[in-house]
UniProtKB/TrEMBL annotation:
Highest taxon of source: Bacteria
Keywords: ATP-binding, Nucleotide-binding, Transport
Listed SUPFAM superfamilies: P-loop containing nucleoside triphosphate hydrolases
Protein family (similarity comment): Belongs to the ABC transporter superfamily.
Protein name (Swiss-Prot/TrEMBL): ABC transporter domain-containing protein
Keyword Metal-binding: no
MF (Gene Ontology): ATP binding; ATP hydrolysis activity
InterPro entries listed in its UniProt record: AAA+_ATPase (IPR003593), ABC_transporter-like_ATP-bd (IPR003439), ABC_transporter-like_CS (IPR017871), ABC_transporter_ATP-binding (IPR050763), DrrA1/2-like_C (IPR025302), P-loop_NTPase (IPR027417)
Domain ABC transporter: 4-229
Entries under Pfam families matching the protein: ABC_tran, DrrA1-3_C
Keyword Transport assigned: yes
Amino acid sequence: MTLLTAKSISKTYREKVAVNHIDLTVKEGQLIAFLGPNGAGKSTTINMLTGLIQTTSGEIRLAGLDPKQKEYHHKIGVVFQNSVLDGQLTVQQNIQNRARMYKNIDLDFENQLIDDFGLTTILDQRYDTLSGGQRRRVDIARALVHQPDLLFLDEPSTGLDIQTRKVIWGTLEKLRETRGLTIILTTHYLEEAEEADFVYVIDHGEVIAHDTVKQLKEDYAQNLLTIESENKDAVLAEIDSSWSVVQEKGSLLIKVPNEHDAIDFLQRVEPLITHFEFRHGNMDDIFMALTGKEIR
Ligand SMILES: Nc1ncnc2c1ncn2[C@@H]1O[C@H](COP(=O)(O)OP(=O)(O)OP(=O)(O)O)[C@@H](O)[C@H]1O
């Protein structure tokens, strides 16, 4: 079922068009990624969807609600790029101040969040004494305390180590499975976009592609098998006629549909080759194919 729609939303600052007629559809339980370079318009889009800034034009609806309505804000949780928590207060005080803003807070759920995000031992520590990774875990737990349907994460993993990312994504994954939590994130981390059900590729305030990761890969980022051989003609004779092949600096660059085909092929030509490399198509390729620029 559709949870959120944005119809032709735009944001203009004087003559600067930050977001230009973007359409979005988000279904319940989806993980959606906004992928784009610095200044593409991702944060501006999120800020409109969270009601932090008003649209210049267009319409946003979340379960029939408008961002100006109070109920809209009960249904969302937001984690901004820069934390908005009070540094003078402890972790517990920050979380409880947030919880007090809502009726019917489920204490068991709150305690589970504290546990899942590994905050138990730092509950009494002042927020401004925490490390970046600890802060981010508190930010996310606080944004979830009222059990929102939709969580917005603006660049959630920036500056975080692998361990912290694992804790965060493990917990978010659990909430998706158990409660059908919907998530919209912006990211420069390709592996985060790779996990998404649906990706909006944004550049210069516009959606330049929107599709599943699988389809985007098929269209713009194919798997590449690079082969070196003393006997290229014999290798070429073995290549499926539907695969595209380019010869570059003595190597054969072969676009293969999937890794199983690559393995079958490699087994057939093994005696003929001196070196090979297999690379999965990735989001960098997608961005390069769409814009001619590498993602920054
Ligand atoms: N308050 C503002 N006044 C004027 N221009 C703005 C304002 N906020 C954003 N912009 C401009 O709008 C464009 C989009 O910015 P936005 O922050 O949405 O990009 P982004 O994709 O989130 O970038 P990043 O990945 O660096 O966070 C940029 O050119 C930015 O300078």
